[in-house]
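Typical record is below.
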Amino acid sequence: MLTDTEIAVSVHYLVHLDDEALGDFASCEGLGVEVVLETREEGGNNGFVWQFPTRLKYPNIKLSRPVAKETADKILNWVVAAASGTTRGTGHIKAMTAAGETVAVYDLHDVVPVRWTGPSFTPDQPKVLTETLEIAHHGFVKTGSEY
């Protein structure tokens, strides 16, 4: 178990959508939040500009991995179902070490797929076939899940 003073090195990411496991991913980019500021200039005050927080903005998250069995079974089915108007779910991204210990869990509200990109098939340059799943969400939540 990781202690507070150990460095947390994450090797892979387990992704769940509600109770459905979408599998392991090798990289995860875009976890974050930005506070959008509105600026106001006050007449007669030339020393600074007022900045007021207005809303939170969440970037899309990009998950990448080598192509796996879950691609056709779960990911593509989820993307196609979302296009036909299914409800948005709660997503969970669990950062794991090589030893299988949990580094962190991020619970996401109103997850919807944005884009899936499959592998490029080029016979002249054999390499690992990878896929990328891009998702959007409406913020972080704490569900107390044990994924």
Notes: The helical segments are 70-83. The two ends are 16 Å apart (CA to CA). DSSP finds one helix and ten strands in the chain.
